[in-house]
């Protein structure tokens, strides 16, 4: 330092302090001590860890976070105006939206605003939540700024604290499975369902309740998600099932079993797509032109997508329909025949529908 003036030394000291300060910010120093340790996980842990519930602050924001979690886990009771079935947000986003590979909230929130091909414009996170109510909950979307959406967004923001904005984190969404060794098969899927799923979701797929509360969600029929939901796509359902089902035993089914049982599950009647144009064939062409969507195909004599819309935006629900018998799907409308094999599987390799 010999020969340097006092002002120069002071400038050097300030520069060093600035660098140290930036480094401390990068490491989470200065952030709430509860949240700092829940930034990006160490490489050995393999992923991001959301903050614990104990880190929710005791203020108005914290109250909104807690309300958001309550709505997320008991949606029908706390947002009944907007829900049209027996599902709750946590039916498909497990562990109250915290669990990796079950479309956790902390994996979705940092990616918005974003363009979605599903509705053809850049969506805010609240708009993305509206889609969940419309399709997965078979209800109607809360208006932007509605207290339900504010609370849910607050909860998602809290779970995301410490995550990088705009980055796709490991565990985001559902896993994308490779095409199975054999084409997906309805009959094999029925056998997997009976052995691994029926105990919780019921032989008829209508779920199970206790004291008036749905414990295990219905997988098809009038109280399940409608044909516009992402889970109605076999590829999406297969990824979710492989990672998470049977409950607490994720990864125990083979990829083939996951594809087969997803095919069985998504080849059952369910509420109409709220985008229904009045024509099943046209609706399929516009919104379900994917080899992994069964909408518009005939299975066991039932044209999937037939029947009155059950979405709250469209009126009264259809009568409940029982599970289909184990049999090969039959002929589909002429415009679709070239895409379907005699057993109902696609003539091309399974693939995930774009931005469902």
Task: Write out the strand line-up for the largest beta sheet, numbering strands in chain order.
Answer: 1-2
Q: What oligomeric assembly is this protein in?
A: single chain
The stretches of 5 or more residues where confidence is low (pLDDT under 50) are: 1-45, 308-356
Distance between the termini: 63 Å
- The CATH superfamily of the largest domain appears as Cytochrome c-like domain
Q: Tell me, what is the CATH class of the largest domain?
A: Mainly Alpha
Number of strands: 6
Give a written overview of the molecule.
It is a single chain. The chain has 356 residues and is mainly alpha-helical. It has 3 domains: 10-39, no CATH class; 53-160, Cytochrome c-like domain (Cytochrome Bc1 Complex, Chain D, domain 2, Orthogonal Bundle); 186-339, Cytochrome c-like domain (Cytochrome Bc1 Complex, Chain D, domain 2), CATH 1.10.760.10. It is 34% helix and 5% strand. It has a two-stranded antiparallel sheet with strand order 1-2. Helix 9 packs across helix 12 and helix 11 (234-244) crosses helix 12. The longest helix is centred in the N-terminal third of the chain and has 21 residues, at 6-26. The radius of gyration is 24 Å and the shape is globular. The termini are far apart.
